[in-house]
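Whiteboard transcription, Tuesday session. T.W. wrote the structure tokens on the left side:
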């Protein structure tokens, strides 16, 4: 089961204008809140700050564009000598319009997903989609050629896909006027991206449509098969650990254990560094959809946090 197969008790909260995205009357979620930034979730805030921060540093000349392009942009022919660029390219943008529209989409569509999935699942998905854009550039290098690639567009297209698959009928108001269901909006973007990739030329510069396509494909694969991928990685890690201890054989999972691993994923119990983020996410959810919308795991987590507060010496 992938994230797509999850069962959630609550949906996204609509804006005062009745829709999401570039619609009239409010922020990304929360019915008509006066301060749209109050509804931003922790990882969305961090991503906004990092992307706008890097753009500002480049805009004032602390990092020349030529240096950023050389060291941080992704190029298919330099993946072996600059492997870090498969991550850094997502946080570098070619201009204010580039970073603004990417972050505007994150501002609207990111918080509902992070509130529903939790911070760890959200940032994992964001990065996976970004990696997908780089992988697409590698696979299609003979078609699109080798050009420096920057921007969060691949990750953002993945976020749009996840939003449409989670809430397909949520209305998106284009230019604050035209309502369109999320599934049709993202479907049109996917077809346009596929066509643009097929007709792409080797001319330097311009829009990296293949990166958008890579983000969409990676997002869909992770939503569908993310659990299987993680389970395979976990089993491989266990084998490596056992082999380091000198064990020559590794016991295989019993059918009963394997069946238990096929259940739908649930938000993971946060580590100490993520505890505050998880508390904030749950409190936001209570404020928007009420206590009845909490899952048993979330109720248990709040109870544990309350007990820790009343009994600081309690051990777990």
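and on the right, the sequence the group agreed on:
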């Amino acid at each position: 089961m992938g994230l797509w197969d999850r069962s959630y008790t609550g949906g996204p909260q609509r804006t005062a204008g009745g829709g999401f995205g570039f619609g009239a009357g409010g922020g990304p979620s929360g019915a008509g809140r006066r301060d749209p930034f109050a509804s931003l979730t922790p990882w969305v805030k961090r991503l906004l700050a990092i992307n706008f921060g890097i753009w500002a540093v480049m805009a004032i000349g602390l990092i020349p564009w030529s240096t950023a392009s050389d060291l941080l942009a992704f190029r298919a022919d330099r993946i072996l000598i600059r492997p870090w660029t498969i991550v850094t390219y997502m946080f570098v943008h070619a201009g204010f319009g580039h970073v603004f529209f990417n972050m505007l989409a994150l501002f609207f569509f990111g918080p509902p997903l992070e509130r529903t999935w939790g911070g760890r699942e959200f940032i994992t998905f964001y990065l996976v989609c970004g990696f997908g854009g780089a992988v697409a550039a590698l696979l299609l290098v003979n078609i699109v050629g080798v050009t420096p690639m920057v921007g969060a567009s691949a990750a953002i297209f993945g976020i749009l896909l996840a939003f449409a698959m989670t809430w397909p009928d949520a209305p998106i108001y284009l230019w604050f006027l035209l309502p369109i269901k999320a599934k049709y909006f993202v479907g049109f973007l996917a077809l346009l991206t596929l066509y643009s990739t097929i007709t792409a030329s080797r001319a330097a510069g311009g829009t990296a449509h293949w990166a958008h396509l890579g983000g969409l494909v990676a997002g869909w694969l992770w939503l569908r098969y993310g659990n299987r991928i993680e389970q395979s990685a976990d089993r491989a890690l266990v084998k490596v650990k056992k082999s380091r201890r000198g064990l020559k054989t590794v016991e295989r999972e019993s059918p009963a254990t394997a069946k238990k691993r096929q259940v739908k994923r649930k938000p993971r119990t946060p580590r100490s560094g993520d505890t505050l983020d998880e508390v904030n996410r749950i409190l936001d959810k209570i404020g928007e959809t009420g206590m009845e919308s909490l899952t048993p795991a979330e109720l248990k987590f709040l109870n544990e946090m309350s007990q820790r507060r009343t009994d600081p010496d309690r051990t777990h």
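Someone added at the bottom: The beta strands are 171-174, 178-181.
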